[in-house]
Write a structure and sequence with these properties.
Elements (H helix, E strand, L loop, with lengths): L1 H37 L8 E2 L4 E9 L5 E9 L6 E6 L4 E5 L1 E4 L8 E9 L6 E7 L12 E2 L10 E10 L6 H14 L3 E6 L4 H13 L2 E5 L27 H11 L4 E6 L4 E5 L5 H11 L3 E6 L1 E5 L23 E2 L11 E4 L4 E4 L4 E4 L2 E5 L4 E7 L12 E2 L7 H15 L4
Parallel strand pairs: 10-11, 10-13, 11-12, 15-21, 16-22
Antiparallel strand pairs: 1-2, 2-3, 3-7, 4-5, 4-8, 6-7, 8-9, 13-18, 14-22, 15-18, 17-23, 19-20
Amino acid sequence: MRKCFRYTFCALSMFICVVVITFSYHVQFRHRKMRSQKLPIATDTITALDNRTFIISPYYEPRLGQSVRVIAIIHVSVKELYCIFHCSSNQNVFVRAEIDLHSDRFGFPYGTADLLCAEPFGCHYTYMSFSSTNSTKTIHELLFEVKNRPPPPISSNFTVCISTLYGNYNNILQMIQSIEMYKILGASRVTIYNTNCSQDVDKVLRHYIDEGTLEVVPWPIDHHLHTAKGWRYSKVPTAEVGYFGQTAALNDCLYRNMYKSKFVLLNDIDEIILPIKDWDWSSLMENLQNKYPDTSVFRIENHIFPNSVNISGFDLWSHVPGVNILHHSVREPINWKLFNGCKLIVNPRDVFQTSVHSALKQRGRWKNIGSDTVLTFHCTHKYRRDIPTEELIPDDVLRRHNMSLVPNVDKVIQRLFPQQ
């Protein structure tokens, strides 16, 4: 009888323990679920995880197995980071990130990095968060939506990525002329990263956003780090990151448009990639791909058209601030002993990392394309100050498009900046 009572008591005690543990588990589980649902979603382009790590955006990466690539800016001392996948089963799965700091940091203590995280098996997710350790106490209390999952269908042939506007940018006329030329050449989308600009430039940006041509990505890098206008840390040792984090912006733009655009062009707002033998980018790329079928990165020679030399007498739009690129139809001869930064046309689905003048990691080949086929029309200050004006090379390649460019630009200016 006592044995039976003892067994009954033990069984009852075990049952009570199981009930208590199960109840506690469900209470904790429910609490985690509620907390997860209340986490805010990150809306800023740049989000500080701490003072050494800044998250830009996570992107689905199907090319390396099922994984997520997170574009970030990190300090060179960062060696450990974790992706936390928020599964639909209400589980948070920690995955240690493989940190790939890009090779073109130019000596600055902060640089662009990829955080590569393998998808956890059986985890259906939309959002993730991040931590500097694998402790649940250190989870950054923001959710980031993983973009490109699933990859969307390609909806345009050419997208131009431009970074970054800074220094209260106010070159209104050249911006309008450049965007109109991009449209003439075949761009269906232009993406601009904007740190700061004037009110008049903002008016231009809003016009092209409303038109459906432009996507403007806020880029408040100067709110987080001391930035430099130059590329070499030795020239600006007080800065933390080079040239307003341009390489991070370009890589984000690459992934943002990876599955939307057949080709992506990487250049600045004062540059236009101009075909010489062909009329537009579609015919240019068709010919280049036929000639170089295994090539995914095309490097286009940079040619300086000094904006200090005006030989055209073209005097439309003198009331609009900025450089009139139609004034400038002579270019500097290239000195091949000096660095000449190319700009890029890439198949984004074959590129893993890009810098400003070359891709860092890609599938397929890269190819330098000569100026007899295409060139980068770069209308800016004189690069080689030792060259007298009479030695500059006449080149009216841009004026071939005047019949379309002039009325298109004039239409925008009459709408936004009519003469009083």
